[in-house]
TrEMBL record:
Record domain MYND-type: where: 32-68
Keywords: Metal-binding, Signal, Zinc, Zinc-finger
Molecular function terms, GO-annotated: zinc ion binding
Record protein name field: MYND-type domain-containing protein
Amino acid sequence: MSLDLLLLLLIILAILLNKSLTPPPRTTSKPCIGCGKLTSLRCSRCHEAYYCSPAHINADWINHKITCRKANRPVLEALLFPVDEPAPRLVKIPYLSKVDTDGLQPTPYHELDVPTMGRLLRGLEMKYVSRLGSHGSQLDHALVVMYGSDFQLDGSAQNECIAGLTGGRMPIPWAGNVLVLRQKGRLYSETWESATMEDVAAMSRFFEEYRDFVPYAF
Ligand SMILES: [Zn+2]
Ligand SMILES: [Zn+2]
């Protein structure tokens, strides 16, 4: 292959990958992430990262692609029971809407942002909660409880938030972070909706009563 042809292919590839630079609407200058030179050119996908030249965004793409466009991604609010804080709070989890076409019929699902989830949980295990307490009234929406798959074995610290909420009366020694989202619809699915602080009540009952790994009255 001639050098010219190779160059042409590289340019086409760069255009396809949409890693171009665009001047911002207002002229702000910031240091180029690659070399520190002041520049007003920013990544045209996220408009957040400054680069002096296509060469420098290309060189940094392996790092930048992880955060690029994250600002524009849709987010769900999950209820976090933090491992080392006294109170639950809402956290934003970016996600992508996808469709699984491997099964008998196309199934939509939400792929939660892996770097964000990975910082919060080690591994992923889920439980479904559909009642207020094990014999209580049916909730309007099911809750999906997400936690580290080996939290009892991987050296995770006890979950202070859950210990506080239950006054220490928790049959399962919850450790590590625990995240809660609402499930969309009544049948099992992996499309989620944002949780709210109102879900703390049902979760407190769950943490007080849940004692084995048998599916929880769903
Ligand atoms: Zn530069
Ligand atoms: Zn970007």
